[in-house]
Design a protein that fits this description.
Chain lengths: ~375, ~375
């Protein structure tokens, strides 16, 4: 913990990265400009590269948002995919049945419907944040392993609940037969068959706009008084409480912030071309993918989680090249081996507790990278 | 010395790469995506074996229109997200002329829109959800669909076995099982039968006693069990212990040699519907070839993978060109294609129209019991 405390002090003697040095409006402008570049690049990088960039971007949002809980407050949540699933299912239900009722179709949409993703993402995020509040309030009084079990259980319960949902309706006629109430209780999202034909609204611009938003949010949060309270909880709950931090409230807030962005990631995932939602998306297998990224990046490091999401995603698709040599079956063993090697050589994660910019600024102060 | 070794290495690599490049120039690429790892790996591997068997056979006979067939195969890990990514890779980067896959309907539904949008024909060997081919006119399948299998089972139970009441025990975690249970119930009731009890379990459950006791109390003539073989065998063993003697009836998810291995005497005298009967003489040649190549008996998924590939090659020979639209038309024009799983024709929704067989388990083997026409 000693290193962590040192880290904490060196966080506080820098007046934040977003504030101070650079005018406040610069960062949002950079995000919007970057999203625009992504939008423009969709045409010439090709479909496959676009697809890889979409998947990577969504995992970046998931990993950075989980950093708020697992990294900042030091709680161990392994149910992050459940919040993604909630965001995806709620927003998917709205856009799918909304468009089916008004347009009579959910595929072959023109670009004029693209804006729908923004309200969908906000509603999906809010739904997930609401679920985060419900789960967080009773369970965040628990610590460490106990919280991990509760979040794991939450994901599994949600998975089973989603299996009990009603079958999907495929025409506005079928919709009017069951009525609005029939579409809601139980939700007609396909049960184990999966929820398909959700309008394909996700594109590179939306994904990277959200990536920018979550990274910016996480940085601003980390260097705010909220963020410092969260870091204090990570280092020592009792000490934090004696300093006047309302520990449970702070944990619940961190949990809700993380859940909100997980809901956004889930919305982007649900509206992505070439996939479909299914109950297993809420299960632990997906959650672990995200936990791996956060741990690999270094618990608490925003840039670390971002980089780890890129590394893990690119490793996964990069190993598809093995197919050219007839070695497809070695893909997963090699993937696992590489993860193990990374963790052996960087047990503290890629960046440890630090951010990428710390390496450029503070070598003289704390004696270089850990 | 060291340098010469390195030069030799570089020269060797260059020759090999050039060789590969030449070989590729003369070949036709087709894609296959399947779950080669993960909990559904046996399905993907069986299908892959069937597809490769077909390719080897065609290549040995001189290829299609004088060109060798080259397979590009990717693993989906049983995950729709991966399926979408690898199908995108197959059609936009590897530029395959056609795609074969997937077994699971949820994964086919993830891949199909990409094939449709890029106008690359896709043939699913064994996705039985009706929605799969409704994605668009480039999507085909060489198996029957859930409603037909539900109809076949209901017809067999009601008309051939004379069952008046049936109990249903299905796996609620599996889309396949849920769909089949629904279709069986609908057809069985329409034929004048009564469903005495309908209960569910989750794949992997170990204790079925409570559910089976409820089923025993409802006193059915037959028990419909549309799950996968591992659960089915466990259910059967526990049912016999509870004194339930009526036969079980299931779908093609039962098709595995493991069923009788685990189920033993408990599963004797039960029935299931399938794509083909292993003792069917028209299948004998394929079974022999498959055993020679892989040292194991093929299951229906292997046979369907083989048929999907062979049907595709047949269409390639007839197609005006291998461009998406021409190849699609040629597949659509397929008439009375003789596959190992039966004679295949496509209906207006591009589903294979072919009979199903009912197999009975006798002395630890699945033998032909009845054939039901569409």
């Amino acid at each position: 913990m000693g290193e962590g405390l040192e880290q904490l002090s060196h966080v506080s003697d820098r007046a934040g990265v977003g504030a101070g040095m650079i005018p406040r409006w610069v960062a949002p402008c950079v995000v919007v400009a970057f999203a625009f570049v992504m939008y423009a690049s969709g045409g010439f990088v090709g479909d496959y590269a676009s697809r890889v960039m979409l998947d990577t971007g969504i995992m970046m949002i998931a990993a950075v948002s989980l950093t708020i809980v697992n990294g900042f407050t030091g709680q161990f949540s392994i149910g992050h995919a459940a919040f993604m699933a909630i965001g995806g299912y709620v927003s998917g239900w709205l856009t799918y049945y909304g468009l089916l009722a008004t347009l009579g179709r959910t595929t072959d949409l023109g670009a004029e419907h693209g804006w729908l993703l923004l309200p969908a993402a906000i509603i999906g995020g809010l739904a997930a944040a609401g679920a985060g509040w419900l789960v967080g309030l009773p369970s965040l009084r628990l610590r460490g392993d106990y919280l991990a079990i509760v979040t794991l259980g939450f994901g599994e319960i949600l998975r089973v609940l989603l299996q009990q949902t009603d079958r999907q309706r495929f025409s506005s006629q079928e919709m009017s037969e069951v009525g609005l109430l029939g579409l809601i209780v139980p939700p007609d999202v396909g049960g184990a068959s999966g929820f398909e034909s959700i309008p394909k609204l996700t594109n590179l611009a939306w994904v990277y706009l959200m990536v920018g938003a979550v990274i910016l949010f996480a940085i601003r949060l980390k260097y705010s008084s909220y963020g410092r309270a969260m870091l204090a909880i990570r280092e020592d709950e009792i000490a934090a409480e004696s300093m006047g931090v309302n520990v449970t409230r702070m944990k619940v807030r961190a949990f809700m912030f993380a859940a909100f962005f997980a809901g956004v990631a889930g919305t982007l995932y649900a509206h992505q071309p070439g996939t479909l939602l299914r109950p297993a998306d809420a299960g632990y297998a997906r959650s672990f993918d995200i936990v791996i990224m956060v741990v690999m990046g270094g618990l608490g490091s925003i840039s670390g989680a971002t980089l780890a999401a890129i590394v893990v995603s690119l490793l996964n698709v990069g190993l598809l090249e093995l197919a050219d040599y007839g070695a497809m079956k070695w893909r997963m063993p090699i993937f696992a081996l590489l993860l193990i090697l990374i963790m052996i050589f960087r047990p503290q994660g890629l960046f440890g507790l630090r951010e990428i910019w710390d390496f450029f600024r503070s070598r003289d102060r704390t004696g270089g990278g850990r | 010395m060291k340098r010469r070794w390195f030069q030799g290495f570089v020269a060797g690599v260059t020759v090999v790469m050039a060789g590969l490049g030449l070989a590729r120039g003369e070949s036709i690429k087709i894609g296959h995506y399947g779950s080669l790892t993960g909990s559904e790996a046996t399905f993907g591997i069986s299908t892959s074996n069937g597809v490769k068997l077909a390719i080897n056979e065609v290549n040995a006979a001189g290829g299609v229109n004088g060109k060798q067939i080259e397979l590009v195969e990717y693993d989906t890990k049983g995950d729709p997200k991966e399926a979408g990514a690898v199908v995108t890779r197959l059609v936009t980067r590897d530029k395959v002329v056609a795609v074969i896959g997937e077994v699971a309907s949820t994964l086919s539904l993830a891949g199909a829109p990409i094939c449709q949008a890029n106008q690359v024909p896709m043939i699913s060997p064994s996705s039985t959800n009706p929605r799969v081919t409704l994605v668009g006119d480039y999507i085909f399948r060489v198996c029957f669909i859930d409603p037909f299998q539900g109809f076949v089972c209901a017809k067999f139970a009601r008309e051939m076995r004379g069952a008046k009441t049936a109990a249903i025990l299905y796996d609620q975690a599996s889309a396949y099982s849920v769909g089949l249970a629904e279709q069986f119930e609908k057809n069985f009731v329409a034929m004048g039968g009564v469903v005495s009890a309908k209960l569910s379990y989750n794949a992997g459950d170990q204790d079925f006693n409570a559910r089976l006791t409820a089923i025993r109390a409802s006193n059915p003539d037959i028990i419909f069990l549309p799950g996968y073989y591992t659960d089915v065998a466990n259910v059967a063993i526990q049912a016999r212990k509870l004194g339930i003697t009526v036969p079980f009836l299931g779908g093609d998810g039962w098709d595995s040699s493991k069923l009788t291995e685990i189920g033993g005497a408990a599963i004797e005298g039960s029935f299931y519907s399938n794509h083909a009967a292993p003792d069917d003489p028209s299948l004998a040649g394929f079974v022999q070839k498959y055993e020679d190549e892989y040292g194991a008996k093929p299951d229906a998924l292997g046979a369907l993978g083989y048929d999907a590939a062979m049907l595709l090659f047949d269409a390639m020979r007839r197609a005006k060109s291998l461009a998406g639209a021409d190849l699609r038309q040629a597949i659509d024009d397929t008439k009375d294609f003789v596959g190992v799983t039966g004679v295949i024709n496509f209906n207006e929704t591009r589903d294979a129209v072919k009979p199903a067989v009912i197999l009975e388990i006798k002395d630890g083997k699945a033998v032909y019991a009845a054939k039901i026409e569409p």
